[in-house]
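Case study: CBS domain-containing protein.
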Amino acid sequence: MKTAQDIMTRAAITVLADDSVQKVGEVFLSSGHHSLPVVDGEGHLVGMIGERDLIDAHRKVHLPTMLTILDGLIPLGGMHEYEEELRKVTAVTAGQLATARVISVAPEEDVDAVAEKLLRKDVHAVPVVDSSGLLLGIISRSDILQHLLKP
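Here is what the predicted structure looks like once written out:
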């Protein structure tokens, strides 16, 4: 039975939490990856940034529809989405733009379980971290395919 550490890419391309959003874009364009781990100076995982996050960071913010009742403003749905859009467009560093709630895997996790997480959560890649949160590698959908198609 193969584990995450058997198929992960050990030399994961990362960005630092303090890197600018512009630098993140440059890394995306030069690497060709769909998502990147964001790490602190010691290599601990801070979050993940996907291409969609970077695109969202450059969009216009759509204000939520408001209803006025007795001189009070009540947002009609979408307030969480508005806050998330606002967070992304005001981000100036990778750490601010990154999604902090990341689906990650342990190095000893079974490859089938990793594939299930990738598909169920509809993400392009999952970071492999140890118990202290140190980034050990990354597994992409391509890594899973290579594992499945090997004779």
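For the exam, be able to explain this: The chain has a mean pLDDT of 86.
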